[in-house]
Amino acid sequence: MEQDLLAQILAEIETNKGKFLKYNQKKLNTLYESISDPKKIELFESIPFLLNTNQTELPGYVDSSSVPLGIYNYHPTTKGINFVKAKFPTVQTMILRNDKPFVQTFALMGSAGTIAYTKDSDFDFWICFNEKDFNQESVALFKAKCRNIEAWIHEKFSMDVNFFLNAIEKVRKNIYAEDEKEDLFGTSIGELLKEEFFRSSIILHGKIPFWWVLPPECNDALYGQWLKVANESRIMHEYADLGNLYNIKREDFLVAALFQILKSLDSPFKSIIKMGLLERYLDSTEDNPFISNIIKKNIQEDKLQSEYIDAYIIMFNYLYDYFIQREDEKSVLEILKISFYLKSEPNLSRYFSAEAEGYISEKHRIMTEYAKKWNWSELTIKQMDAFQNWGIEPVTKLFNSAKKNMLLGYKKILSMIESKQIQHKMNEAEIKGITRKIFSHFSMSENKIDNTLSFKNYPFEKYLMMEYVRDRDGNDMWMLSKRLITNNKLNKIIIYKNKSLFGLVAWVSLNGLFQKDFTRLDIDSGLFSADPNFLRDIVADITNRFVINRVKLYNRYFLRDPFPIMSYIIINPFSKYSDKIDDIIFLYYNSWGEVKFDTYKNQNDFIKILADILNGCMITGLDFKTAINISSSSPYSSSKEFYQFRLLLKDIYDFFLEPMADEKRRYITQLGNRFVVFFTRKVGTVNVVDYTVFDSEIKLLYNISFNNGVRNKIRVDSGVKELNYLMKIIESYRENVIQIYSELETKYCYFFVTDERGSISFFRKPAVFYSQYLLGIYLFSMNVAGQIVANNPDSILAGQKMPIVMYNLKRGFKSDCEISEYDPVQMKKIFENLKKILPFKLSIRFNDEGEVLYRFSLPDGAFTDVLDKNNLMEVVGELKGLISSVQGYHYFVTDINLEHLSMNLYKNYTSFSFTEKNRFELMVERGLGE
Description:
Layout: H1 3-34, H2 38-52, H3 78-87, E1 105-109, E2 123-129, H4 136-157, E3 161-167, H5 168-172, H6 188-200, E4 202-206, E5 208-209, H7 220-232, E6 239-240, H8 250-263, H9 268-283, H10 291-300, H11 306-309, H12 311-323, H13 330-344, H14 362-373, H15 378-385, H16 392-418, H17 428-442, E7 463-470, E8 476-486, E9 489-498, H18 501-510, E10 520-523, H19 532-545, E11 564-571, E12 584-590, E13 595-600, H20 606-620, H21 624-627, E14 628-632, H22 640-657, E15 663-671, E16 674-683, E17 686-694, H23 697-703, E18 711-716, H24 724-731, E19 738-744, E20 748-754, E21 760-766, H25 770-791, E22 804-811, E23 817-821, H26 824-833, E24 841-846, E25 852-856, H27 869-885, E26 895-897, H28 904-908, H29 911-928
Parallel strand pairs: 2-3, 5-6, 7-10, 11-14, 15-18, 19-22, 24-26
Antiparallel strand pairs: 1-2, 1-4, 7-8, 8-9, 11-12, 12-13, 15-16, 16-17, 19-20, 20-21, 22-23, 24-25
């Protein structure tokens, strides 16, 4: 490369660097001007210090010497250090030299430094690091440090701070940490995420992204040329190579933009802006320049006024100019203007009075010009500034209008996709997922908590009133209102109405109007005998613990039916005197982003609720504390029944949440007056939780006895005393032997067998056959174990001198249970008596339709013909005659032949053999009428 060109490139890099730093500082100054609380600035400036050190006294401490630390070229501010010293006087604040800092670029992104920043805005930080310099364990430790700091700030200051860790090597390829599990889209998402980062970020510490010092609209070839110059000239250590951003193909932009819309559904302003930008782009025949490129061009032309560098202003103008030219989109303009004003919160009416003096902010100047351009009167502006005091009618009207425009915009895009007017890379599943996500957000139902207030974060109210009313048609209704003093008069403002009292309770909570110890909430429960104090506690609990905005929704969730992610079970919300279950409210935040509640009436309904919750946990993997909460009004909350249900809820949740190998899980409990088995089953390649309900213990035991060789993991609810014996059997389980438990009672004898795969088989026979069946099941177990070992030398039964272990089982009157292993004398007696019984061998095969066919041995050793179920019933009479006439002969199976089966699963493990023995004997018993 010629020296003159090399020098020119280096000079331009240096010039552009200076211009970028000037722009970056202006954005930071704008942010500080927008933060009214000096303590918030001090906290903000302390955050990089917390990331730079690892001391036990400080938030973010991780108990490991391997946690990586340091921010490139970090110099702490006086405010940040003073804040830390004030909070933690004993910490070491000296910054030690770090030759290998973890953080290469530390940036703030989002609305900070723009007209859209308000006191309620989050702080979202980007942390860029070199992946090649740190192993996965180190990165995981730093992530843990970040999560600890996030949690501390949220707890102590009620602020949402988020750290996004991104490997520079991956960002260069448009792969992002926040997108690791988003499996519906390709890396085209990353290009738009990179564009969003460039246009909205403030570089706080560390290296400048190299993209900023290149010319606007720099193509990849030019980027590579300048990058080579920077590397060879050894100035690249000042910059982070995050890759170029030049253009996105139209079809790729569609995918990425739709994804961005999905992310912003909870913010109508963002949604409308992004939907409009997408429409404008798809209508255009020219390339759509990125907002970040426009900003970079203006920076390098020394245009640093807000109108030229504020991404929100540029986006609004870009879209406003587009819609104003379209006669059919006038309603969109009104929504756009209102959303933009409410998002920026300029509060222009503060300056209407003659007494208003002092500093006029940049935001005020800009928004005043917009208001004049829109011909907004002082009355209109006052109405906008009083949005938090709007009644239900105007808020609902605004919400419905925004919803209508969003859906119309999406339908236009969807029709263009379906009609092939635009090419795209999305498959049918991806379009289905997007459609579900958008329409589920706006769909309404009686049991859904709507998001009417998502236009604006409402402040906590000082006084709220819930009261029962009846409309002109005689319909019950609950109404939420607040009191507002205007012109020295007390006015009642109706905020919301709902047909359900609980719907109103949940709406108040989830829309953030209530704060415990601040808000006075009066409740008139109307027809219900509800305890107002309990309802107030519920409002506070939902507000504080049912935090929906921190739940991660993945796009793959929208490819399946919705399931609960976070759940809240509330018992007897409207019964302050009941010591039994009168009502159950199941409140849940589902995988489609909806908050819903279902109402139930008795304990039997818990079965469905639990199944729904468990299927959610199998997908999300959220821990119990995060996923579930349960409460009840008094006196039921003090009952033993409520206490046991809480224990059951956690036990069953943790059981199904444990990492699952290739196994079937069963949890056995009792709810209401019925026994229930919750179990896993495969649907394709996915495990789901299902349940079966039984009206008797015997039916339950037979149900769990039919197994096909899959490994079983079983747990019994310790609160069900009637099943204490079953829990003891499971606790005594040994996987390298077959265990037989026998019990003799007056009418029946009972046998339980646990095999090497964790399965349980249950057999019940008349008490008169106890000794004979005990010998038979022992002989059967010996024969089956021998066959399995011969067919599967790797079986864990192989090499066992005594693969069968016998136990006596004795159940007491109060559900206590004793288990004792057979002693040598008892075992010797069994061996001596084995020769007294005649073998009854069973042969199994399948026909072409998968039906089981049988042959069994006769007293002379010969076998019957092949029998299906119907034929078997026809020969039962002859079998009964043989049993009564031939001593020692019985239909109790002592051996089984599986050589005609093709599946090794059946022949490699004993479960299938015990299952078929049980099935055959039960069919014969039914035929004999026993």
